[in-house]
Write a structure and sequence with these properties.
The complex is a heterodimer of chains A (394) and B (229). By secondary structure, chain A is α/β, with parallel strands linked by helices. Chain A has one domain: Alpha-Beta Barrel (TIM Barrel). In chain A, strands 1, 2, 3, 4, 5, 8, 9, 10, 11 and 12 form a 10-stranded parallel sheet that branches. A two-stranded antiparallel sheet of chain A has the order 6-7. The radius of gyration of chain A is 21 Å and the shape is globular. Chain A starts with a strand and ends in a 37-residue tail after the last helix. Chain B is α/β, with parallel strands linked by helices and 229 residues long. Chain B has a single domain, classed as Rossmann fold. Helices cover 44% and strands 17% of the residues of chain B. In chain B, strands 1, 2, 3, 4, 5, 6 and 7 form a 7-stranded mixed sheet that branches. In chain B, helix 6 links the parallel strand 5 and strand 6. In chain B, 39% of the residues are buried. Classes of the chains: A alpha/beta (394), B alpha/beta (229). At the A-B interface, helix 5, helix 6, helix 7 and helix 9 of A face helix 3 and helix 10 of B.
């Protein structure tokens, strides 16, 4: 079971002291937060992708490579990578590069993005968001598994004899999570490919999460990747920890009240009762998080949102001390005791290499000599299967 | 007849207690119950007082997050055989509490369900609000308002003509409930309406695996020239 944090990279005014960090400050602070996550023993750091203020994370792989370079154990990932407005070819290239630089300590989560104006900035249309996401992933999946891809679709130009470089580390594609709140097609795609499914879990009552996860598990089994119990599930969550219940609520209340999305709406008490939000003493947070598995089953990854809504950096670092020091160790122990032995761990690069090669040496693609035409043709690597490339008819 | 017991759900957006809107709804309930019982049905009545749900409305509107009161109301409406929806009229419109309540419900929650639409107002100049405004809300939701709208201004309250209209609307509602229209529509042709996963008050969990999107999700491709514009 992996525990980690996820950031949306929002730059939000601190409602308590009316201070808005600069982009430079927030970027530096989020690096500190990521490094702190490793220091306190968390497993995963995730960052979102946005292309509009007040967010800064337009280039998640750059940020994550910076974090990976300064850590030893942390898995870096996204929450989410936009599979709609990014060209899947660029996703294939950038994340393969991140995979090499991080020595495999990465994966990624794909999401659609629900900000309509962003789509046309990248030449897309939110009304086509779902087919765009599904088709783009179908292509991305092949780009990481086939040295040479011929492809035609509806949302980008066709590819003939295209090789995405670099090839994935050890020729093992990065593990992919598909994130969705309420779209069964996304869960279906995750299940079809045997990929992970991640439920946002934050803005919805547990019944929605339960319904989507159950659907994904059934379909994972249907497609023959294992039993429903062996499907790979991740959950979002949100914590604010204090030494006592009262301290936690007192400190979090002003940030909750003005939080983007749910601020100026429900009361903290109601939102805590009716959603996965866990605000309280370490034991209260532990009890609440332990309850998640009652409705999704044994799962593989739990990410918490801890740095949003204008929370100052010192407070976030304190939160990480409490999360890593007092909450997660107990959660690991308690979850391990409750866990069914048949429930798998989250895939890692090492486990995927093992699954593909056993004890054999992983493939290390070595390019053929440059032919001077900048087209890789049908056999870009010394060990590529020679395969006929179909060129377009003009 | 679809059930031994006909489940009648009242949605009243009256602002005061007692309210003339609630009283109008209750008079309608009484006539519906009497007529249904005369036909050998039992009638159960659930009342959703929108005023009591108002503290939950802001979060429902802003984040589609349903509190416990809304959750109960949705469950009642999902099981209703007939609905009586009553609102006060303010500034030539149904009250914001009333429209807010219905706007946050799933689009497919009350498809095919027979309804009596009722409204009260401080002046008879609001008389067409039921038929010209409120009715279109329920057309969108594919519900089945009865032909007679019930409107009451102060001067109507003691008028036998109002009692006659209530009686007529009640008769129409009982006839539609007995006809089993809602269950027929929700049985045979349910799939022809738009649904979302988990909609219709969380009962909608059927997924059409043969849809274009589901085939694309499972590694298929779209028909070519699926235009982006």
């Amino acid at each position: 079971m992996q525990f980690g944090i996820m950031s949306v990279s929002d730059i939000t005014r601190d409602p308590v002291n009316d201070y808005t960090p600069s982009e430079a400050e927030r970027i530096n602070n989020l690096t500190r937060i990521a490094l702190k996550a490793e220091e306190v023993g968390l497993d995963v750091f995730a960052i979102g992708e946005h292309h509009n203020p007040p967010f800064f994370s337009s280039s998640p792989t750059t940020f994550l490579a910076h974090v990976a370079a300064q850590t030893q154990h942390l898995t870096v990932t996204t929450s989410t990578t936009l599979i709609t407005t990014n060209d899947p070819v660029r996703i294939a290239e950038e994340y393969a590069m991140l995979q090499h630089l991080s020595k495999g300590r990465m994966d990624l989560m794909l999401g659609r993005g629900n900000t309509a104006p962003v789509y046309p900035w990248f030449g897309q249309d939110i009304r086509q968001g779902l087919p765009l996401a599904l088709e783009n992933y179908n292509l991305l999946h092949r780009l990481w598994r086939e040295d040479v891809v011929d492809w035609e679709g509806n949302f980008r130009g066709p590819l003939q004899g295209f090789t995405s470089t670099p090839r994935p580390l050890d020729d093992v594609p990065p593990f992919v999570w598909h994130g969705s709140i309420r779209t069964p097609e996304i869960a279906e795609q995750a299940a079809f490919y045997g990929n992970g499914f991640f439920a946002n879990h934050i803005f919805w009552p547990k019944e929605h999460t339960q319904r989507m996860v159950q659907f994904y598990r059934q379909r994972f089994e249907h497609y023959g990747h294992g039993t429903a119990q062996e499907a790979i599930v991740g959950l979002g969550g949100q914590t604010f920890i204090g030494k006592t219940t009262q301290e936690a609520r007192r400190n979090f209340q002003p940030y909750f009240n003005e939080a983007p999305v749910y601020g100026h709406g429900p009361s903290l008490e109601d939102f805590s009762t009716q959603t996965p939000l866990a605000v309280g003493s370490p034991q209260e947070v532990i009890d609440k998080v332990l309850g998640y598995r009652d409705y999704v089953g044994d799962y593989q990854r739990q990410l918490f949102l801890v740095d949003h809504a204008g929370l100052p950096i010192e407070m976030v670092l304190d939160q990480l001390e409490l999360l890593g020091g007092e909450v997660v160790p107990t959660l690991r122990k308690e979850m391990a005791e409750r866990r069914d032995p048949a429930a798998p761990d989250a895939p890692t690069h090492a486990s995927l290499v093992k699954a593909k090669y056993g004890d054999a040496e992983p493939r290390q693609p070595r390019p053929n000599a440059n032919r001077g035409d900048n087209v890789t043709g049908d056999s870009p690597y010394q060990d590529s299967d020679g395969k006929h490339t179909v060129y377009p008819e003009l | 007849m679809t059930h031994d017991t006909l489940r009648l759900v009242v949605v009243s957006a009256g602002a005061s207690n007692p309210s003339s809107t609630r009283m109008l709804a209750d008079r309608t309930v009484q006539r519906v119950t009497t007529k249904a019982e005369a036909h050998g049905h039992r009638v159960s009545v659930d009342v959703i007082d929108v005023r009591e749900l108002l503290p939950e409305l802001p979060q429902a509107l802003s984040s589609q997050f349903m509190g416990p009161g809304f959750t109960r109301a949705i469950k009642a409406l999902a099981q209703a055989d007939g609905i009586i929806a009553a609102t006060p009229v303010y500034k030539a419109s149904a009250s914001a509490a009333f429209t807010g309540f219905f706007q946050v419900l799933d689009n497919d929650l009350i498809i095919g369900k027979p309804m009596v639409l009722a409204a009260t107002a401080g002046t008879s100049r609001h008389a067409l609000v039921v038929d010209q405004e409120v009715r279109s809300l329920f057309a969108y939701m594919r519900a089945l308002p009865v032909p007679t709208g019930v409107f009451a201004a102060p001067e109507d309250m003691n008028d036998a003509a109002l009692a006659a209209r209530i009686d007529r609307a009640a008769q129409e509602l009982v006839t539609l409930m007995e006809a089993g229209f809602a269950s027929a529509v929700r049985g045979d042709t349910w799939d022809s309406y738009s649904h979302e996963f988990g909609s219709a008050g969380a009962v909608e969990s059927a997924v059409d695996f043969s849809s274009e999107m589901m085939r694309l999700a499972a590694g298929g491709s779209l028909p070519r020239a699926h235009s982006t514009e």
